[in-house]
Amino acid sequence: MKASRFCGRAPTPGFDGAFVDERLTEVRRLLADEASLGLGVGVDVGQIDTRAGSEHWSRTYDDEYNPLLAAEQPTIGALFEALRPGLVLDAGCGTGRHCVTLGELGHRVIGVDSSPHMLERARRNAPQATLIEGAISSLPLASHSVDAAICSLALTHVASLADSLAELARVVAPGGHIITSDIHVLSLYLGGVAGVQGGDGSIRAMPAARYLASDYINAARRAGLHIDACFEPRWGRVDGEGGPLAQALCPTAAATAYRDTPAAIIWRFNRP
To answer: Which domains does the chain have, with CATH numbers?
Structure first.
């Protein structure tokens, strides 16, 4: 019996027996060329905390191509446009990407980030925003002090999702909204864990919690938030799927693994 009959995706359109046979041939070639390709060497991946990792990341974040930003933007951009103009917190603001957008939409913006290096970049990118050093799990703001809050591509790096959502709920005034986005847990398992390269060439992975949809739901309920909507935009066809090694050695397989897989998970909560 052909091996392709055992492939879970083979019966679906575009994943027929010929496709699977091509991938098996590709695997055999990679195994046969293991020594020449250097696949048996391996790489030791260390760990780095978010603050230290952000120091490295801040130097290149605005210049690197990140397909996750493109996958997130249409959905989160529409949610931003639906917010009534007011005072908005950008928690984990990074280099100020969303601070700029929110300012252009007529909001007054407070950006908070734990990395002074990210904030230095944000001050150049979004000079109109008020920028403060602080942690998402312990925001340096008074309760009920902002009309809305956003937290984009940062919650996977926090130790406690419940504490962070509780803090966002605390600082938002009753009737306000909270919008969060992050890389989808499925994409973390496809190699989406963020990492930085040290001066010695070593790779160090930043914290990447595998939060499920149920974790968000339970944390939101404990924080007294109501769920308005949840979105899971898919990758579609983007450049840079699967990392440089996979793109070089098996580009079709890498692209297929990502295609139609959720790229991000985006929530809109309201504070009653």
So the answer is: 65-185+210-238+263-270 (3.40.50.150)
